[in-house]
Amino acid sequence: MNDKAEVVKLEPTYSQRFTNVVVKEFGGTVGKLSLTPLQERLAQHLFVAIDTQLKSLEVKRALDKSKKDNAPIAWENINMNKLAIDSVHRIELGLDALIPNHIHPIPYWNKRLEKYDLSLDVGYVGKDYYKRKMALEPPLDIRYELVYSNDEFMPIKKSALSEVESYEFKIKNAFDRGEVVGGFGYISYTDPKKNTLVLVTKDDMEKSRKAAKSDAFWKPHPTQMQFVVLVRRTTAKINVDPEKVNASLMAVEMDETVQAADRDIEENANKEALDIDSEKEQIIEIDKNGEVQTVEERKAAGEMTSIEPEDDEHQVQAPRQKFQDDIRSAANILGVKRYAAILQECGHEIISKVPEKEFDKYRRVSSRP
């Protein structure tokens, strides 16, 4: 009889293995990383969401005859270095991939690496969550409402007669509200005088729809997409606390603003893998209302462009210094290898350079409003 107690070695689960890989890859690129129990749980949730998405997309790929020769959409074909860095940034912001519309894993094919890069796009619910969390003054409440043609809505702006920005809103017929004519967001604070009313017109929503590269989401779900535009426009008015700003916030915000510089994702990108090898550096310019404008549009309006001439008359540096510094800081802090890859392909010394005459040609608008 063997008196020695038999020791059973427990193998880590797949989600635990994913968490370990994320920590290892991030540590090898950026620096040592230690996750809290909450962050470990968020990492495991992210694994479940990504794994489910990959399996679903692989089934569709296998059934699509036009994609039968494409690489299988599976873990062994995923660029884990990029995924590790992007995962940590989302986890540090407290985003939970198992909560609907917090994170959208979108794969696209990177021909240079011959692997799929996973873009972890932040959904409108996730945007609302982390913007509240990082706010200079956390709002008491944020109300989002679409306004229909049969509703009664009257904005009350701050004036000599009203110290508080407010509104009057009445749904006259809950079962026949008509068509969407716009929307509003109302951000409430402890001090009512700081309350902010954000108006989003039907034209604003149409601009976002037209900016999308396809109608894959807009055509079947117009109301939902209009609501997404409303949330993003409203949360953009929340001031971020400088003391809360970290590398993760900067990375996620930068990904949203210049994601077209890294990749070209269509509205239905979660349904097909994209080849981005031929993409050149693209930079978009956004005005004070959050709308994308070309250089010529801003010049025609008499506004200052974000293009500053360099010694080489054929080159420009964009956008202005602050955002350029953000990019450089991100590269230094995060070790964002994808930017280095783009620079190598484009032959530029810094990512914010692009030939002026081709500036508008190469700019792209993010498919998500």
From TrEMBL:
Residues 298-321 are annotated as: Disordered. GO terms for molecular function: DNA binding. GO terms for biological process: DNA metabolic process. InterPro entries: RecT_fam. It holds the Pfam family RecT. This is Uncharacterized protein. It comes from marine sediment metagenome.
